[in-house]
Recover the amino acids of this structure.
């Protein structure tokens, strides 16, 4: 299974946050049907991951817990499902889990960095890199 790009294209920690949003806009522009259709799926959790099964495969957010920090280190969405909000729903599930367990999230993959940039209201739950 191919990666979404977050592992082999990890941005340096000091990368400007404006460039992160440009990076994702460029990637999403490759999927012209990104907002088409309404998908039915349920976000589920098992040890070390949140996932959703779509008609094109599994989308997932992988994490590990170290003390009081949830390290979100990989997010994958099948190419046909990108741009439809699935990764954001996985990130929200991770955030809800972190809140209920008094954890902070360390965004190690580029999608989670983008998520916290896009949602400054959740900054209190972000652990700095």
């Amino acid at each position: 299974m191919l990666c979404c790009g977050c592992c082999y294209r990890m941005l340096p920690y000091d990368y400007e946050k404006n460039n992160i949003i440009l990076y994702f806009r460029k990637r999403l522009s490759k999927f012209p049907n990104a907002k088409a259709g309404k998908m039915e799926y349920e976000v589920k959790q098992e040890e070390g991951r949140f996932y959703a099964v779509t008609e094109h495969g599994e989308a997932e957010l992988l994490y590990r817990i170290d003390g009081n920090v949830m390290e979100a280190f990989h997010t994958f969405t099948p190419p046909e499902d990108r741009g439809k909000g699935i990764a954001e729903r996985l990130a929200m599930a991770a955030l809800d889990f972190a809140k209920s367990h008094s954890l902070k999230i360390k965004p190690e993959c580029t999608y989670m960095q983008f998520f916290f940039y896009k949602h400054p209201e959740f900054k209190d739950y972000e652990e700095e890199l």
User: Anything to note?
Assistant: The first strand starts at residue 43 and ends at 46.
